[in-house]
């Protein structure tokens, strides 16, 4: 059984896609695109050097473009400080007083919550903003004065 070049390229495409599905590595799809370009070059009757060049340019270019796209995209804050993940981030609470360890109990959303000071300097009573959550403990910083 003699396999032509396009069949080998299509087998490479299938193998790369299968490995990508098993591992979740999106870059392998970019390389599969390059292998598909090699297969199309083989169907067009181009030589093996042209097939490899097409696969390299398309696959490598797709990998570079995807990498640059991901690098330029802004990174999101960690989940414990990300308002898109946790609706409590940015909400205000009133802290009537602090203990010596920089903790307090405050009413928030119908329950008493443990609060830990996450600002700079010494904690003072008053309005604070939730900046993070650590389990069932709110991390707060002083609210900006309007």
What does the model show?
This protein has 146 residues and is of the alpha+beta class. It has 2 domains: 5-72, no CATH class; 79-142, Nucleic acid-binding proteins (OB fold (Dihydrolipoamide Acetyltransferase, E2P)). It contains 3 helices and 5 strands. It has helices at residues 5-23, 27-43, 48-72; strands at 92-95, 103-108, 111-117, 126-134, 137-142. Helix 1 packs antiparallel against helix 2 (27-43) and helix 2 (27-43) runs antiparallel to helix 3 (48-72). The radius of gyration is 28 Å and the shape is rod-shaped. The N and C termini lie far apart (80 Å).
Record field, number of beta strands = 5
**Helix-strand category:** alpha+beta
Helix content: 40-55%
Overall 3D shape:
rod-shaped
Question: How many H/I helical runs?
Answer: 3
Largest sheet: 5 strands, mixed
The ordered string of helix (H) and strand (E) elements is HHHEEEEE
Q: Total domains, how many?
A: 2
Provide the fold topology:
Layout: H1 5-23, H2 27-43, H3 48-72, E1 92-95, E2 103-108, E3 111-117, E4 126-134, E5 137-142
Parallel strand pairs: 3-5
Antiparallel strand pairs: 1-4, 2-3, 4-5
Helix pairs in contact: 1-2, 2-3
Give a quick set of tags describing it.
rod-shaped, five-stranded mixed sheet, 5 strands, 3 helices, 42% helix, 2 domains, 146 residues, alpha+beta
């Amino acid at each position: 059984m003699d396999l032509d070049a396009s069949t080998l390229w299509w087998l490479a495409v299938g193998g790369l896609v299968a490995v990508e599905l098993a591992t979740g590595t999106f870059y392998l799809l970019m390389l599969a695109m390059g292998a598909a370009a090699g297969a199309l070059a083989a169907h067009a009757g181009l030589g093996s050097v042209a097939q490899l060049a097409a696969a390299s340019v398309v696959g490598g270019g797709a990998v570079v473009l995807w990498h640059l796209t991901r690098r330029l995209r802004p990174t999101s804050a960690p989940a414990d400080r990300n308002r898109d993940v946790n609706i409590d981030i940015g909400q205000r609470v009133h802290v009537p007083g602090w203990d010596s360890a920089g903790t307090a109990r405050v009413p928030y959303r119908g329950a008493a919550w443990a609060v830990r000071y996450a600002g700079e300097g010494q904690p003072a009573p008053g309005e604070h903003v939730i900046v993070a959550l650590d389990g069932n403990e709110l991390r707060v910083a002083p609210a900006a004065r309007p």
